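Dissemination and training. As part of the outreach component of the grant, students in the summer workshop were shown how a complex can be specified as a set of sequence lines and then modelled as a single object. The example used during the hands-on session is reproduced here so that future cohorts can follow it. Participants entered these lines:
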Amino acid sequence: MIIILKAGVGEADAKELVQKIESTGLKPLYMPGVERTVLGAIGDERVLQSLHLDSDPRVDEIKPILSKYKQVSRELNPIDTHVMLGNHAVGGEKFTVIAGPCGVEGRDQILDVAEMVKGHGVAALRGGAFKPRTSPYSFQGMGEAGLKLLKEANALTGLPTVSEVIEASDVDLMAQYVDGLQIGARNMQNFRLLEAAGECGLPVLLKRGMSATIEEFLLAAEYIVNAGNPNVILCERGIRTFETATRNTLDLNAVAYLKRKTHLPVLVDPSHGTGIRELVAPLSYASAAVGADGIIVEAHMNPKEALSDGHQSLDGNDFAALMSGLRPFVEAAGKRL
Amino acid sequence: MIIILKAGVGEADAKELVQKIESTGLKPLYMPGVERTVLGAIGDERVLQSLHLDSDPRVDEIKPILSKYKQVSRELNPIDTHVMLGNHAVGGEKFTVIAGPCGVEGRDQILDVAEMVKGHGVAALRGGAFKPRTSPYSFQGMGEAGLKLLKEANALTGLPTVSEVIEASDVDLMAQYVDGLQIGARNMQNFRLLEAAGECGLPVLLKRGMSATIEEFLLAAEYIVNAGNPNVILCERGIRTFETATRNTLDLNAVAYLKRKTHLPVLVDPSHGTGIRELVAPLSYASAAVGADGIIVEAHMNPKEALSDGHQSLDGNDFAALMSGLRPFVEAAGKRL
Amino acid sequence: MIIILKAGVGEADAKELVQKIESTGLKPLYMPGVERTVLGAIGDERVLQSLHLDSDPRVDEIKPILSKYKQVSRELNPIDTHVMLGNHAVGGEKFTVIAGPCGVEGRDQILDVAEMVKGHGVAALRGGAFKPRTSPYSFQGMGEAGLKLLKEANALTGLPTVSEVIEASDVDLMAQYVDGLQIGARNMQNFRLLEAAGECGLPVLLKRGMSATIEEFLLAAEYIVNAGNPNVILCERGIRTFETATRNTLDLNAVAYLKRKTHLPVLVDPSHGTGIRELVAPLSYASAAVGADGIIVEAHMNPKEALSDGHQSLDGNDFAALMSGLRPFVEAAGKRL
Amino acid sequence: MIIILKAGVGEADAKELVQKIESTGLKPLYMPGVERTVLGAIGDERVLQSLHLDSDPRVDEIKPILSKYKQVSRELNPIDTHVMLGNHAVGGEKFTVIAGPCGVEGRDQILDVAEMVKGHGVAALRGGAFKPRTSPYSFQGMGEAGLKLLKEANALTGLPTVSEVIEASDVDLMAQYVDGLQIGARNMQNFRLLEAAGECGLPVLLKRGMSATIEEFLLAAEYIVNAGNPNVILCERGIRTFETATRNTLDLNAVAYLKRKTHLPVLVDPSHGTGIRELVAPLSYASAAVGADGIIVEAHMNPKEALSDGHQSLDGNDFAALMSGLRPFVEAAGKRL
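and obtained this result:
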């Protein structure tokens, strides 16, 4: 850790801080400069937290050197993690496609779309039973009834299912019905929920918050792993920027960056990432090309009637076109569909 | 609501959509233009949700005319809401100052700071018992023990207390100890929590999410009010932008804008809004000038030893200077301190 | 155009505005609603500018229906534009790769890298002679001497050259030496420069401003085309967001979106778009997959010695790897390298 | 400067870099850590630029310690700069109000508004003759004819005038007619223009770019000062963020921050900063409270007829109300109007 002192802080003060650093067992460094003094601390700088140096009025800035996350870091664990979603290994040689409607809306709706996407060889079925909606007047999901329909779709097609959990106290209920928990963008820093998901053994598909930095995203994953669950799948789903032509700005830089920083698998959600049906396919291809481990896509037999996100959902024809269009890019990336 | 059709959509399709609008009881409008056709729907456009027009592939864009929120809207309810925090009316003639440490860290810590801020005439004491922290390795708060200390501080000083709730299932516990619930920026769209806070009668200090638009902020408040609790205090606490010199970008435009759009009181948090101790006072003055109903400020007897946010906390001297510096601006704004 | 009046504006005022609209020759619409009145204007709404309705205190909001750009719009001109850069058609079947150093630094430097990239079959050589730099103390480019070296590199390799122009008065000078003008992100709204580039016949590679919306980007292109030069190549180079792990956030959504909105070719600059050498290749692949017409990449024989942008420049080995890695993605996209 | 090496870089490589640092005359520091090695360089780190350490593949990150700007820094020059605009000292005890129309549109328009604002005691008159406009189809300003009218307004009222310059080659022309040059947000990094303004003796009102960091803003000012002109006035005018309810997000944090980092005067433009007429007054008050040296405000006798920015312009009544409302806040801030 590098500690930059304010201009004008004298030697006595600096030396006092050096002693504080030394008292934690770290090796201190004292670097008096022309305009200001810089201190260093060599060792596991996480122990320096107890000193609260960033609160010291003599300190201008703290520059950490080590990442704040450990267990999800590729530096400490270079081998790719494979997360088993049913029998499918996310993060392995196969490019993972998870598809299904935004929300479970009824028996026919979910079973029909499950069969359709199954026919195209997807790895898992998605569908929300509890929907976090910006307005209290929007469709809030079917709740447990929706989970039961997901279970039925799983029985029918054999596809593992993934569904969003929006509260810690729902984790056990969800675990009775689905094969993977999704934690949505709005809950990426709902730390109670992260911990509850960490205490459960199910795979967790963790979506990046819409204004979360990559470091915060990895720290959210660290919460889950630290609570005992190593089965975390990261998902880039677009960040909020000044651009309004698209619903979000899909950050594919982040995918390539994450693949270098963490051993966890990384998926992309081009449906939320763009918010525009016609852009889902090209951004899916780009996701494969940039090195993502898969995509999660909204599909609906009749998007016009969808109770949420219809404008970004693919129908049967669109989905067929996506899957055939995707194949050469997946193969170019050295993976299989 | 205005519905813009894609270029090339013909009269037959447009007329079919017109009939759908008519079927909801709204008055439709048909505007064939040179380059594209535009439809209108006059009446309470919220009923149009059931049509899912934004999912229709013939529709290019939907432009709503009415705001999505109702109960928090000044248009529908022009009279300022006063929220009673203990005996203090937030939103009234007195400029509200809420102060205290980021987190409750121990008995002496919280009692000492409570007495200090009480001495300066603040309206309420703040202090977190459950701390949402970016890293799982940071101090997570004292939990219920912290709440008990807040209760003790209240008994000692008479100051009403406000503390952050981070999960729906904690609301009842919190209600035993504190006078106001804070919902933090990271939970602004934790809809279960909003509903739980709505079912409780306590005042709710709702902080703006760090990438929430003003409309989303008001819709989050609408969740609470719609669940039965009209006692909502909004709090601008800085948004996330590209600027990194300050921790967040305090959006005082939003304060002036909110005062025109909603009847709810609006506070400002200059501590999180700047993240820099030296900037807390000038931004507090600016908050009073722009028309805010008050501020919430972090104070600590010894910021150097604070377990969180010490770098932005004021000590006793800083706090005294803030309060005396603030007075003329509050008076210029036609309020009292 | 849709004109939403403020709540409370009465019929007489609305009718006066309707007459103003009618006076421009457009067909007006009058839609009195429950909460507010909405007006419409059918026809070429660009003539409404003269009414300055957005300044009228009775008007709450103006919602334009037509795009503000015309000549660059695919709706008005659906056929892809091919821009000739030397003998190479940008926007055609071949995927365009433009490569070279950030800045021209000396004779050997530019000739060596020109031969290297030529050996890999690139379409054109890039290299800056006038460098816009954030700090006045950074290397500002070789000026005309650099242009002469680019001309020499062109003579040696036959590669057409592209170089940045930073001021209107330099356009004629540049035109003596290079085959294409680059207008950088910082100058995307230097309207004098856009007009000067529009009066010159050379191809213009227009980079998106770092906080420019897609609409502003297209309007900047419209300036050039409107001044008489149809040879505009758009270039997405990353936008500024809250994320700091990468230098910018490369917006590949924008590429797919632009391909649908405009007939102009669209390139991607993954070097500035990421700012990290290791991310250039994966984002180049993603650019090909998303449908870009090509990439522009920084290459340098010895990035360690580069006077600018060395951290994001590829050396000979990196560049060879990029080109061979790129091929299957370009082919998957139905183009040739 | 702190240089963090990549994990796995060995002692030999680190020592080679240490020698390079030593060769520049700086004192190097070698800090081998548990997970990675850190190097330091003590002295004027600006000389390290010549090493291009950020391009070295062994280097993970460079953390500068000193600011990149010098001449505008308060650390190096703690005394407030006063910039003379005519006889008025910007940055002194008087709070500076500059007012006038967005653009000069005609003789009566500019003379009338000049007399109106003069009557309220403003320090200077603003008005654009060359207008940078997003669309090529918008009003582009009157050009030199507009400058002549400004000169006439100056003769009539005695008010010094400020007008925007949009190209380096126009500086001399402008200098014949106006008392201060404005460099607009879109040209904040038009470095040729900064240099040209630096070679001219006139006061320069430099607006912050809409996505410029505070550091980039100060470096732009440094360009002007470094070219020989110390008369720079900074102007915060709102930054571009995700929020679209207001035209920009006025960053008053930046004003308080700038006042601590630089000796240059800092104004605020609440007209562009909000884009909404009704918000101009409250944000003007907040600007005074936060410590700004003044404001620049758009005023027009008949905003409904304004050729640009009418929606954010104040008319005579609004302007009178602003000036009387402003007074108590200016006085609370210890300044005079």
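DSSP finds ten helices and 14 strands in chain A. Students were then asked to discuss how this feature might be tested experimentally.
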